[in-house]
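haha ok so turns out i had the wrong file open the whole time. this is the CORRECT one, sorry everyone. sequence first:
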Amino acid sequence: MPKVGIVISNYNGWQDTLVCLDSLQKQTFTDFEVILIDDASPNDSIAQLQNKLPPNTVFLPQERNVGFAAANNIGMRRALDDGCDFALLLNNDTEVTDDTLHYLCETLDGDRSIGAVCPKIRFFAPPQHIQFAGYTPLTRITLRNALIGFGEPDDGRYDTPHDTPYAHGAAMMVRRETLEKAGPMPEVYFLYYEELDWSVRIREQGRRIAYDPRCTVFHKESATTGQQSPLRSYCLTRNRLLFAWRNLRGGARLLSVAYQLCIAAPKNAVSALAHRRGDLAKAVCRGVRDFFTLKNKTA
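then structure:
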């Protein structure tokens, strides 16, 4: 069995992190280590975690908040240094209740053309419907897509393995060669869209991204940022623009950026004001402003 480095980033969520770590100890494949990064949590996460970690855990507290992508890159570099064949990126607000992680290893080990694989992801809260069973492709201009199976019961309809154009950042396993050839997860995004951009890099290397429904991970959606937080609105606005700038070319790039600037962002800001959420409207405006600051600093 290949050696697996399970990379988990914690920010203020030590309670969820400990539950996640406990669920990992129930897996039967034993050649794995957990690489836990605390992303400079301002609460007492470090103190709460230090004395309660399983013995196979490497703890890497950070002095400043580096963001989701950079924290995962720190963990993946450590996994490579420790001789891991695969790296599993796992959100700290997930639980693996059944002994199924080994199926992800089998998928990567059995097909060299697969660069990354994702499990079925279900919501943790009852009735635990499906969150992710693959992605549909992004539309060319509006950059919209859908999560396959989202909100539907796990009744067997999504139990067929298939390729997906993008991996889900809450739970994805990549092979060592993927990390070495596609490079690290792009850190310019800080939060949101980094796994979509990284998926493009992986596929540019000729690798496939697979969905394996034999493994199920339960996700406590957005426990870190909240469903309607200014941070979420800011990052989604800025990063959608950055994704278009980095991954589209020619007329498609110009049309997509124009759509985000002239239609999507104003609509979101007006909607926030209509719901008396001035903080969200300001976050959208900051996202647009910072896109122009960053767009020429990123390839």
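Strands lie at 4-10, 32-38, 57-61, 86-90, 94-95, 114-123, 130-132, 162-163, 171-175, 208-219.
again sry for the mixup
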